[in-house]
Amino acid sequence: MSTAAVAVPTNSVGISNLPNQRYKIVNEKGDHFTIMVCGESGLGKTTFINTLFQTTLKHQEPRRNNGPIKKTIDIDITRAVLEEKNFKLRVNVIDTPGFGDNVNNNKSWQRIIDFIDDQHDSYMRQEQQPFRKIKFDLRVHAVLYFIKPTGHGLKPLDIETMKKISTRANLIPVIAKTDTLTQQELSTFKLRIRQVIETQEIRIFTPPIDESILSNGSATEDNSAAIEHARQLIESMPFAIVGSEERFTNDKGVQVIARKYPWGLVEIENDSHCDFRKLRSLLLRTNLLDLILSTEEVHYEAYRALRLGNSNEENKDSSIPINTPARKLLSSNPHFKEEENALKKYFTEQVKAEEQRFRQWEQNIVNERVRLNNDLEDIQSKVKKLEEQVKNLQLKKR
Ligand SMILES: Nc1nc2c(ncn2[C@@H]2O[C@H](COP(=O)(O)OP(=O)(O)OP(=O)(O)O)[C@@H](O)[C@H]2O)c(=O)[nH]1
Ligand SMILES: [Mg+2]
């Protein structure tokens, strides 16, 4: 795993506009935020991160790594500080190697799932220390799952991976490289994906809407606007993404980050071209706190309950000692079942070998005792003989 620290950014995305109370809670809740990207190889995950850094998390370098983007082969963490007015947020962005390249893509999600679980585990162990000082918290607040822009639907691998992620973290599906689809193709594709998500019961993160504000008539101009914004975000899901690191001058003479085509520019930060701004707003502005709180209250709590074996009363028997390694727990997962069976076999063999060794040792002791007894008998008979000799000598002396 590699990490890179990035210099201080300044560009405004509006985090300082969070209402005061939310701002305060975000500050208290650890003042940091972790996003992860994952999905098939070559879908623009690394490019998306670089685009996010260029537009939001500004720093001195034009790019984190110079030269063309290479295939990501290891989990890569980039840290930055997003600073606005007096609001400061530490942002960790986790890039992951793409999957789907292999003939057998079975369990290609494993590294991602392990990473998410390991962060929960590490946090839980720190919490259990006497002084409960959390030094290291990389629990993932949002996972962006990149979907290939095929226009058809979701692959079984996508469905399986999304299901696995959604039980552990806030899942946000995004359609990658949407500049390769026409508007018509994109809207049909979005519809199909939403249908699959619904029928497969994949839990995706949805911005909460407080309808009670509208129904009890307490809506102010501000919160009706917030509700409207949340509705727009929900309608746009899964977000259509385009990533780029190049700047061009558009027909209004403004420098924009875009992808250039013979027929014109696809502008990253233009709402009529793609949903980049909406996604960024959800992540770093409007739903930042929802993402942090649901990670803490839903996903981390679920993990903790499972680890402590008190997720529900019937499950009491499955209670697992806290010092059990994290991964042993998830035995419903076939990978862990295999691992568990292999371990059981190894353990049985070890016990057998130990028993054999013990029996041999026991036999050796018996043999040794017989030998010593024989020696003792020998010595005793020698002593007896000597005593007789002494007796005879004494008699002769008289
Ligand atoms: N058309 C188009 N191409 C893109 C987009 N984003 C990235 N690309 C290109 O797609 C290629 C792969 O991009 P990467 O960012 O390396 O993809 P990745 O998902 O990180 O790939 P792995 O690290 O192998 O998983 C590069 O040539 C990018 O320039 C996009 O939005 N549209
Ligand atoms: Mg990559």
TrEMBL record:
Q: Which UniProt keywords apply?
A: Cell cycle, Cell division, Coiled coil, GTP-binding, Nucleotide-binding
A single GO molecular function, which one?
molecular adaptor activity
User: What is one Pfam family matched by this protein?
Assistant: Septin
Q: Which residues form a coiled coil?
A: 336-396
GO annotation terms (biological process) = maintenance of cell polarity; mitotic actomyosin contractile ring assembly; septin ring assembly
Q: Which family does it belong to?
A: Belongs to the TRAFAC class TrmE-Era-EngA-EngB-Septin-like GTPase superfamily. Septin GTPase family.
User: Which protein, by its recorded name, is this?
Assistant: Septin-type G domain-containing protein
- Protein source organism: Vanderwaltozyma polyspora (strain ATCC 22028 / DSM 70294 / BCRC 21397 / CBS 2163 / NBRC 10782 / NRRL Y-8283 / UCD 57-17) (Kluyveromyces polysporus)
Q: What is the lineage of its organism?
A: Eukaryota, Fungi, Dikarya, Ascomycota, Saccharomycotina
